[in-house]
Amino acid sequence: MRLKDRVPLGAKGPLGVVVDPMTWRAAPYLLVTGFFGLGWFVVLGLAVPLSLTLAVVWVGVPLMMATVLIWRGGAMLERRMLRAAFGVRIADPYRPRPEGGVGAHLRWLLSDPATWQDLGYLLMLLPLGAVEVVLTFTGWFTSVMLLIQPLLLALHGRSEDYDELVVDDWMSAGLVAFFGAVVLVLTAYLVRGMAWLHGTLATVLLGGNQEERLRASRARGIDAAEAERRRIERDLHDGAQQRLLSVAVDLGRAQSKFDTDPDEVRALITQAHAGTKAAIAELRNLARGIHPAILSDRGLDAALSGLAARAPIRVDVSVELEDRPPPAVESIAYFTVAETLTNMAKHSGATEASVTVIRDHRGVVVDVWDNGIGGAALSPGGGLSGLADRAATIDGVLVVHSPLGGPTLVRAELPCEW
């Protein structure tokens, strides 16, 4: 998550900010975040001192681990809620889980800077959330009460008294409603401003160490490139190289028998010709695996349609891109779909699937859905893990939702600028 991807303040004009869905998604979160903060303050204010006190007799060690896992879970939930409310995407920044017993896991939990940043964010929710709740509730309540004055006048013949202003005629009711509309617009801007501020603080605290994540992303990219190089080398050695060697042997034998056994020479040349065509096909498939020509020539829509046509089941493809994204994004999107459809054909038992590619203000989003049996996961060394490594090279994210029984959704979020 980069700072420039935070929720925008809104530059659509007053009416645009009021009707923007982002405003109405942010408002409910801002109305309840203070209560979340109060709950976390009470829970952590009791659990942390208690576990530290009991740690001297070792009883507090498992309690501390449980407490840390609870606040980590709360931070993970907050990241999902922030994405739904503000459109802020923050990946979980935790270090990989180590092998070993309780001691190794405790060191892993306590030595990870993201653990303590999570705690700081959850404790910050109480003061920040209290301000957000008061300002949000006051703004919406005031604007609504002012806007409904003409309705109250029509129903009861008299509305409310506001100090020296008595709303008992249509002119004063209209004036009050006008001020209500002004307050509504100001409240919408206030909501967007608080959402921007909250998203900024959440990005800093919940996003972990950006430099460390960047180093890890680069390392994963280098590992992915090295694995791809080994795959190409292996495919060349086991495929096209062996076929071309067989062609050379056949041609050598044909040359030695050119004058003595014409029939054998013709058979050997025929065999060499077939081997040459097979080698060409191997090289073509290998080149397509490195970077398909149709992707460079005609873009994602045509390339993904070609993948869908070769799939064993019906795959609906929808690509909604006005302009072509950068080549790296196109390539990663293509191979994400290709690998996911391959896994689907091998393991899912699906009868239908769909591929959707859209572009929002942050980048390209690729969704691959199927109605199979589910159970797909980002396991180390697996195909989906390799796709996540590819996406990480451009600071992208791969998310897999595949409960047992299905359906499966693989989503790649690929930024167009990095």
TrEMBL record:
UniProt-listed Pfam families: HisKA_3, Sensor
Domain Signal transduction histidine kinase subgroup 3 dimerisation and phosphoacceptor: 228-293
Sorted UniProt keywords: ATP-binding, Kinase, Membrane, Nucleotide-binding, Phosphoprotein, Transferase, Transmembrane, Transmembrane helix, Two-component regulatory system
Reaction(s) catalysed by this chain's protein: ATP + protein L-histidine = ADP + protein N-phospho-L-histidine
Transmembrane intervals: 29-48, 54-73, 121-150, 170-191
Residue ranges annotated for the Putative sensor domain, each copy included: 29-206
GO MF, one annotated term: kinase activity
Enzyme class (EC, first level): transferase
CDD domains hit by this protein: HATPase_UhpB-NarQ-NarX-like
Domain of life: Bacteria
EC number of the protein: 2.7.13.3
Entry-linked InterPro entries: HATPase_C_sf (IPR036890), Put_sensor_dom (IPR025828), Sensor_HK_TwoCompSys (IPR050482), Sig_transdc_His_kin_sub3_dim/P (IPR011712)
Record protein name field: histidine kinase
Protein species of origin: Nonomuraea insulae
Lineage start: Bacteria, Bacillati, Actinomycetota, Actinomycetes, Streptosporangiales
